[in-house]
Write the structure tokens for this entry.
Amino acid sequence: MLSTTDHRRDYSGFRYVYPVVSRRAGGVSVAGNTRSSNFPVTDDAYQMSYGGGSYDYGDAFVSRFSSSGALLYSTYLGG
């Protein structure tokens, strides 16, 4: 489980996850960046596909999870 002080970096998938925000109604929201072209996005995503951001950081992403861990929303941001 990530806490609000975690900063994780996965070199194999070039995914960075920044602090997690707990939601009043339960669940969490996370933001970070990825260079993955198959990052999980939801059908209502603002940006459905990888936009080819900078080499070092790729595209930003925002994801929201329910208190049970189900993915509620996820989108790329950038390119």
Summary: Residues 1-12 have pLDDT under 50 and may be disordered. The first strand starts at residue 8 and ends at 10. The beta strands are 8-10, 15-17, 21-22, 28-34, 59-65, 71-77.
